[in-house]
Write a structure and sequence with these properties.
It is built from 25 helices and 22 strands. Strands 3, 4, 5, 6, 7, 8 and 9 form a 7-stranded mixed sheet that branches. Strands 14, 15, 16, 17, 18, 19 and 20 form a 7-stranded mixed sheet that branches. Strand 3 and strand 4 (120-125) form a beta hairpin. The longest helix is centred in the C-terminal third of the chain and has 43 residues, at 706-748. The protein is of the alpha+beta class.
Length: 848
C-alpha cells in the first residue's frame, strides 16, 4: 500500500485540497448539528426580530387604513365641497346616474346638548350599513327616521345616552345664525366608529336626516361607489357635469394613497424610526453573541484545525473556510428567523381579529437574510483569523481546547482607556452649557456609545473585581458555589463577552425605567399644578357660599372636594393671585416638590411662592416679604406655578388679613369612580347642585381637567410600553447568548465534569454548579448594565427636560436585576441537565 505524501505547511494547495479544507469544515459542522443550532440561535433571534418589525409595520399600517381612514375601500370617487357644499338635490342627481351604485353625503359637524352647561356632541352622517358605512352597530338599531341618532360608546357612558333615551340639541337657526333652536332626538343605538377614533362623544344618523341637526346647508363631501364594469372616465365626466362650481372630484384610490402616506408618516413614521435604532442595537448585540459563540466553537476544534495546518493547510485558506461556515450558519438562521416571523405575522390577525393581515414582503425578507448572513460573516472573521493561526503542534496535545486567556493585549488596553477617557469628556460637556439641547443630547449619546465600547475592550479586567464581590455569596454556599465562581472566573474573556451583551440589555432597560420615572414625575408635578383634580368649579361675583360647598362634599358622586379662596394683590410692580388652597387637601398635592424650603412649613405668617413670583420678588425660602399689607416669611418656593396656577399660597387666616371674601372662589373635586360613566355622573351632580343652590348659575363655570391629565398619562404609558418592549429585544438576545455560551462551555468541559464526577461530585451538584454559572453571567451583566444605564439616563433627562425631577425606581431596578439573574440561570438549566448525565468513564474516555 502506498503511503500518501504530506504537503508541507508552507506549500500552496491545489483546487482539490482547497475543496477538501472547506469540505472538512462543513462536514464537522453537519456532524454536530447541535453546535450549528447553538451558534446560530442569536442570529436567528435577530433575524426574527428584524423581520417581525417589518411585519408589525405592515400590520399597523393596514390596520390604520382599514379601521381609521376616511375613505372606505369601496369608494370609487369623492366629490369634495371645500368652502362650498353639495346640496341634497345634487346628491339626488348623482344617485340617479346609471353608473352609480351608491352615493353617501358626508357631514362632520356638532351641536351642544341643551342645559345650563354645554356638553358637545359631534354629529356625522353615515348610512349605518353597506360597503360605504364607517360605523358598526354594537347595540340597538341604526336611525331610520328624522329625530333619531345613534351614539358612540363614549357618549353612551359619559352622557348616559343609551338606546331609548331622549335628549335635546341646540342647533343654529338657519334664519338667524346668532340664535339656536332646540331639536329633540331619540337615541336608537350604540355604534363603534371605524373611520375615526372615538376621542369625543359623537352621534350618527343618515345623510337624509343630518340636515335637521347640522349647522351646514349641505354636505361637505360625497362618497360614490361605481357600478362594476362601468367606464370610469364616462362616469367621472357625468358627475362633473352635475357638480356645482367649487366642488372637486377625486378618485377614491388617489385619496386612499394619500391616506396611506399620512398613515405611515408623522408619529407612526417617527415610531418606526425609533424602532430601527433599537433594532440596530439588537443586531449589534446578536453580533457580539455570535462572535463569542464562534470563538468557543473554534476553540473546541483546535486539534482538528491543527491537523489541517500540519498537512499543509495555510492560514488564509483555513480562515476562508471558517468564514464560509459562518456564512452558512447566518443564511440558515436568517431564513428560519424570517419564516418564523412571517408565520407569526399572518397568525396575529387570526388571534386578534381587530388587526389587519400583512402582505408577503419578499424583497424585505431577502434583504433580512442577506443582512444576517453579512452580520454573521462579520462576527466570524475575528474568531476565524484567530483560530486559523493555531500551531500544528497543537494536534499533538491531548486537550481539545485552550485555557482561558487572563490577559488582554496592550493595544486593546490602550483602546479601552482611550474610549473611557473620551466618554468621560463628552459626558462632562453638557454640564458646562445646556443651551444647545440637541448638541448636548448628541454628546451624551456619543459618550454612552464610547462607554460601552470601553466596556467591551476592558471587559476581562472589569469582570474580575465585580466577580470577586458578586461571587462572595455563592462561595458561602459550599463547593458548588466555589466551582461556579471559578468556572466563570477561569475564562474572563468569555465571561466578559457574554456579560457585556447582558449589560447592554440591562443598561437599556434601566435607562428606560429611570427616564420614564423622571418623565412621570414631571407629568405628575405639572398635573398637580394645572389639573389637581378631575373638575374645577370657579365662581365669579359673590362666589360660592358654605352651603353650596357642603352640598358638593355631600354628593356621593364626588370625592376630595376642596374649596379655596383667592385675592389679587399688587406688589413690586406686579399683580399676584394669592390663594388659601391647601396642597395636602388633594391627592395630587404630594406630587408637588419644593425648589427651596419645605411645603410642610406653610402656616400662619408663612407663604409658598411659585417660581416666577419668587424670581420677580427676588426672594427664596427664609426671606421676608410683604403682600397685601401682611408681613410673611417664605416657607418654600416651587419649581413652577402653584396648585390651580396660583402665585402665592397662604393659610386662610392670612388671606382674611389681605381682605379676601368669606365665600369660596371655587372648588376642586374628583369623581367618586373611574371611567367615563363615573365622570359623567360627577359632572351632572356638579351641574345639578349649581342649578339648585346657586342664585345665578351663569356666574359659575365647570372645567373638566381630567381629560388633559389622562392624555398625559396615556402618552407616558405608551412611551413606556414601546420603550420597554424595544429594549426587551436586546435582553432576549442576551439570554440566548447565555444559553449558547453555557451549552458550548458544557461541551468543552466534558472531561472536567467527568473528573469532578469521578471525585464524588453528584449529578445534582453538577447541575447546580452550571446553573449558578449561567446566573453569574446575568449578575455580572446586571451590575455593569446598571452602572452604565442609570447615570446616563439621569444625564439625558437633565438635558432633555430640565424641570423633570430625578427619580430612581429602586423597586423596578431591583426586579430587573433579580429577574435577569433568574432568566440567565434558567437559560443554563438545559445544558446543566445534559452535563448532569455525564458519567466518569464516558468523560475520561473522550478526547474532546
Amino acid at each position: 500500500m502506498n503511503t500518501p505524501s504530506i504537503t508541507p505547511s508552507n506549500a500552496p494547495l491545489n483546487a482539490p485540497w482547497r475543496a477538501s479544507i472547506l469540505g472538512s469544515q462543513l462536514a464537522e459542522l453537519l456532524r454536530r448539528p447541535g453546535r450549528l443550532v447553538t451558534t446560530g440561535m442569536s442570529v436567528l433571534v435577530a433575524a426574527f426580530v428584524v423581520f417581525a418589525t417589518v411585519m408589525a409595520q405592515q400590520i399597523t399600517t393596514n390596520t390604520t387604513l382599514d379601521r381609521f381612514r376616511g375613505t372606505p375601500e369601496a369608494v370609487s370617487l369623492v366629490a369634495t365641497a371645500g368652502d362650498s357644499h353639495v346640496s341634497a338635490a345634487t346628491l339626488k342627481k348623482i344617485r340617479a346616474l346609471p353608473g352609480v351604485a351608491e352615493a353617501v353625503g358626508r357631514v362632520d359637524s356638532g351641536a351642544p346638548l341643551a342645559g345650563p352647561f354645554e356638553h358637545w356632541l359631534a354629529l356625522r352622517s353615515d348610512p349605518g350599513s353597506g360597503p360605504l358605512s364607517q360605523v358598526r352597530l354594537v347595540k340597538g338599531s341604526y336611525p331610520e327616521h328624522a329625530g333619531q341618532i345613534a351614539v358612540n360608546r363614549r357618549a353612551a357612558e359619559e352622557l348616559e345616552l343609551t338606546p331609548g333615551t331622549r335628549t335635546t340639541l341646540l342647533v343654529p337657526d338657519r334664519k338667524d345664525t346668532d340664535k339656536t333652536v332646540k331639536v329633540t332626538v331619540t337615541v336608537t343605538g350604540v355604534v363603534k366608529s371605524t373611520a375615526t377614533a372615538d376621542q369625543q362623544s359623537g352621534g350618527y344618523t343618515t345623510d337624509a336626516h343630518i340636515g335637521t341637526l347640522a349647522d351646514l346647508p349641505g354636505y361637505q363631501h360625497v362618497d360614490i361607489r361605481a357600478r362594476k364594469h362601468f367606464p370610469a372616465a364616462q362616469l367621472s365626466q357625468q358627475i362633473r357635469d352635475i357638480l356645482p362650481t367649487g366642488v372637486t372630484l377625486t378618485s377614491g384610490s388617489a385619496l386612499r394613497a394619500q391616506e396611506e402616506h399620512d398613515a405611515v408618516s408623522g408619529d407612526m413614521q417617527e415610531l418606526f424610526r425609533l424602532i430601527s435604532v433599537f433594532l440596530a442595537v439588537a443586531v449589534g448585540a446578536a453580533a457580539l453573541v455570535a462572535t463569542s459563540t464562534f470563538r468557543i466553537v473554534f476553540a473546541q476544534r483546535l486539534r482538528q484545525l491543527a491537523l489541517l495546518r500540519a498537512i499543509g493547510a495555510p492560514q488564509r485558506r483555513l480562515a476562508a473556510a471558517l468564514a464560509v461556515e459562518g456564512a452558512l450558519v447566518g443564511a440558515v438562521a436568517g431564513t428560519l428567523g424570517v419564516l418564523i416571523a412571517l408565520g407569526a405575522g399572518h397568525l396575529a390577525p387570526l388571534v386578534a381579529r381587530d388587526l389587519s393581515a400583512p402582505g408577503f414582503p419578499v424583497t424585505d425578507a431577502a434583504l433580512v437574510v442577506v443582512g444576517t448572513t453579512l452580520v454573521t460573516v462579520g462576527a466570524v472573521l475575528a474568531p476565524a483569523l484567530s483560530a486559523a493561526r493555531v500551531s500544528p503542534l497543537q494536534a499533538l496535545r491531548t486537550a481539545g481546547t485552550v485555557g482561558g486567556e487572563t490577559r488582554i493585549r496592550p493595544a486593546r488596553l490602550t483602546a479601552g482607556l482611550l474610549f473611557a477617557a473620551a466618554a468621560t469628556g463628552l459626558a462632562a460637556l453638557p454640564g458646562q452649557d445646556t443651551s444647545d439641547r440637541d448638541l448636548a443630547m448628541m454628546s451624551l449619546v456619543a459618550s454612552a456609545a464610547l462607554a460601552f465600547l470601553a466596556l467591551i475592550a476592558l471587559g476581562p479586567l472589569v469582570v474580575r473585581p465585580v466577580l470577586a464581590v458578586t461571587g462572595w455569596p455563592l462561595r458561602r454556599l459550599g463547593a458548588t458555589g466555589r466551582l461556579a465562581v471559578s468556572g466563570v472566573g477561569g475564562t474572563p474573556r468569555r465571561a466578559a463577552a457574554v456579560s457585556v451583551v447582558v449589560a447592554l440589555g440591562v443598561a437599556l432597560v434601566s435607562g428606560a425605567l429611570v427616564s420614564l420615572a423622571c418623565l412621570s414625575g414631571y407629568m405628575e408635578r405639572a398635573n398637580a399644578v394645572e389639573a389637581p383634580a378631575d373638575f374645577r368649579v370657579a365662581a365669579d361675583g359673590k362666589g360660592l357660599d358654605s352651603t353650596v360647598v357642603r352640598q358638593f362634599a355631600a354628593s356621593p358622586a364626588l370625592t376630595h372636594v376642596t374649596g379655596y379662596r383667592t385675592v389679587q394683590v399688587k406688589a413690586a410692580g406686579g399683580e399676584f393671585e394669592v390663594s388659601d388652597l391647601d396642597p395636602e387637601a388633594l391627592p395630587t398635592g404630594r406630587q408637588i416638590d419644593a425648589a427651596t424650603g419645605s411645603l410642610g412649613d406653610l402656616g400662619p405668617g408663612h407663604a409658598v411662592l411659585s417660581a416666577d413670583t419668587a424670581e420677580h420678588l427676588g426672594v427664596t425660602a427664609g426671606d421676608a416679604l410683604s403682600l397685601g399689607g401682611v408681613r410673611l416669611t417664605v416657607a418654600a418656593t416651587l419649581h413652577g406655578a402653584g396648585p390651580g396656577l396660583a402665585n402665592v399660597l397662604v393659610v386662610p387666616a392670612d388671606l382674611d388679613r389681605m381682605g379676601a371674601a368669606k365665600n369660596a372662589s371655587g372648588i376642586f373635586a374628583d369623581a367618586a369612580g373611574d371611567g367615563f360613566a363615573a365622570r359623567g355622573k360627577a359632572q351632572r351632580a356638579l351641574e345639578s347642585i349649581i342649578r339648585t343652590h346657586v342664585p345665578d348659575p351663569d356666574d359659575v363655570s365647570v372645567s373638566v381637567l381630567s381629560e388633559a391629565r389622562d392624555s398625559d398619562r396615556e402618552t407616558v404609558r405608551l412611551m413606556g410600553t414601546t420603550a420597554l418592549g424595544l429594549v426587551a429585544l436586546t435582553v432576549l438576545i442576551a439570554v440566548v447568548g447565555v444559553t449558547a455560551t453555557t451549552s458550548l462551555t458544557a461541551i468543552e468541559r466534558t472531561r472536567e465534569f467527568g473528573l469532578l464526577r469521578a471525585l464524588g461530585l453528584g449529578g445534582g451538584a453538577l447541575r447546580r454548579t452550571i446553573t449558578m454559572e449561567a446566573g453569574l453571567y446575568g449578575v455580572l451583566g446586571g451590575v455593569l448594565g446598571l452602572a452604565l444605564g442609570v447615570p446616563y439616563a439621569w444625564l439625558l433627562i437633565r438635558v432633555a427636560v430640565t424641570e423633570a425631577p430625578l427619580r430612581l425606581p429602586g423597586a423596578q431596578l431591583l426586579l430587573v436585576f433579580a429577574g435577569l439573574a433568574a432568566l440567565t440561570a434558567l437559560a443554563g438549566l438545559l445544558p446543566a441537565r445534559r452535563a448532569g448525565r455525564i458519567t466518569p468513564m464516558t468523560a475520561l474516555g473522550n478526547a474532546e
